[in-house]
Amino acid sequence: MNPKQALFAIAFFLLTYYQTAHCQISIQQSQTPVELYVQVKNYDEFINRFNFQIDFKGNPIDNSFRQNYTRKQVIETLFDLDDKRLKPESKQQQSYLNIKNKFIDEVVTKNIFIKKDANLYARVSCIFTYKQEDIKIELFLKYTYDGDNAYRWALTKVKSEMLEISNVDDITHFITPNSDELGFSNLNRAFAANSSMKNIADSDFEYDELSAFLYLTETGALTFKNAVSHQYIYYGIPGYKVVIDEFNRTGYNTGWLISDIRKTN
To answer: Rounded mean pLDDT of 10-27?
Structure first.
C-alpha cells in the first residue's frame, strides 16, 4: 500500500467509524469532515503521530489500530505527498525516494522518536515597520531549556535585506592618518561616502545582523507588525535534517507535514 492509498484507507476507516459508532447523534453534530481528523493540526500532534502514540482521532493507539496500520504507514502519511520530487517525471524522484525510504526505515527499526527539545528550530517570516515602511524579516529561533522545567524560544539569527551591509573592499575609503592633526574634522567625508562603511572599521571587524536588529527594535526604530508564516527544522534524528511546513489545502494530506529531508554529517 503506497502512502496515498494508506491515507484513503484511513479516511474510509474514520468515515465508517463515525457512521456506525455515532449513528444516534444528530446529522448536524456528526458533520465534522473526515479531512479534519486526518489533518495534522499542530506540531505537537505531528510529534504524537510520528511517534505512533495517538491515532487519527487523537486517542492513544490501541491494539485495534495496530492491527490495521503500522508506524511506517503512519509516518508515510506525514510527508507532503504532492512534493514535485515524487512525480514520475522528476529527475530527483529516485534520489529523494531513496533518502525518504531510508529515513523511515531507520526511524522504525531503531525506534527513534521526535521530541520538542533543543534539537528543534523555527524559521519565522515576519513583517516589521521601519521608517513607516513594511519590511520582511526572517527570525531563526531555537527551542531552549533554561533549567527548572523552564523552556523558551531563543532568537539565534535574523535575515533581511535591510540589515545587510556592503562587503565591497574600497581602498580609497578610509580615515586618513593625519586626521588627528585636523581635529578629526574630516570625518564627515568618511561617513558621507557612498561606499561600504565596513572599510573604516578595524580589519578584524565582523558585522552582526542580530545585534543590529536588537538595537533597532530596542530603540523603537523597528517595530513588529505580524508573523506571516513559520516552519520547523528538527536535527534530533542522527544523520538527518527534517523540515516541517504547514500545507493548507483540501484533501487528506494536509496540515503540518514533512516538506524536506536532508542528510547531515
So the answer is: 45
The set of cell numbers assigned to 213 is: 536588529
> What DSSP state is assigned to residue 253?
S
pLDDT value at 42 more than 80: yes
**pLDDT confidence band for 24 (50 / 70 / 90):** very low
Q: Is the dihedral of CA 249, 253, 257, 262 positive or negative?
A: negative
Residue 189: the pLDDT is 83
Query: Which H or E run includes 4?
Result: helix 3-20
pLDDT of the residue at 235:
97
Residue type, 114: I
CA 83, 87, 90: angle at the middle one, nearest 5? Answer: 100
Q: How many CB atoms lie within 10 A of CB 41?
A: 14
Residue 23 has pLDDT above 50, yes or no: no
Q: What is each CA distance from 229 to 7, 54, 126, 225, in whole angstroms?
A: 26, 26, 7, 13
Q: What span, in angstroms and rounded, lies between the C-alpha atoms of 128 and 133?
A: 8
Length of the chain: 265
Of 258, 256, 260, the C-alpha closest to 39 is 256
CA–CA dist 53, 6 (Å, integer):
18
